[in-house]
Amino acid sequence: MPASDAFPGDLDALHWDERGDAVTATFEAELDDAGRADWGAEAAHTRVRYHVRFAGVADLRAAGWDHRLPLRLAVVADGERGADGEQVPDGGRVVVEVSGEGTDVRFTSAPPEHVAYRTFTAAAP
After folding, report:
1. What are the Cα distances from residue 2, in Å, to 7, 39, 51, 72, 117?
2. Cα 66 to Cα 53: distance, rounded to the nearest angstrom
């Protein structure tokens, strides 16, 4: 699994878990040779599906959600400015912004954590 905080591929879903105050984002991406090495995938595998968890969610605002791609998920860390220009306060938290046509979801959370992934061979189109 790559160590980077970047989230390659398409955002497929957001799952809100109100019991644990968490949001899990699911992504799917194509694998090239470097990606197979990063994810520890078999040579025949062409895709990876992975989940990123945001714990301690607060200030959740969902002004719209639509399934149409592309969806963009941006994580803004302490001391940076979000897409709306607001300064993110210090304190070890991040601001998460999910946007796209008909989609506007924002919340604050602990830094993201990769929680699960699987690689596989996609069926031919």
Report:
1. 10, 6, 13, 19, 11
2. 20
d(CA 47, CA 42): 10
**pLDDT digits 0-9 by tens, 21-68:** 999 999 999 999 999 999 999 999 999 999 999 999 998 998 988 877
Distance CA 110, CA 22 (A): 9
Measure the CA–CA gap between 72 and 103, rounded to whole angstroms.
9
Residue 18: partners with Cβ closer than 8 Å, 6 or more residues away: none
- For the entire predicted model, the pTM comes to 0.80
Confidence band (pLDDT; 50, 70, 90) for 4? very low
CA 116, 122, 125 angle in degrees (round to 5)?
A: 145
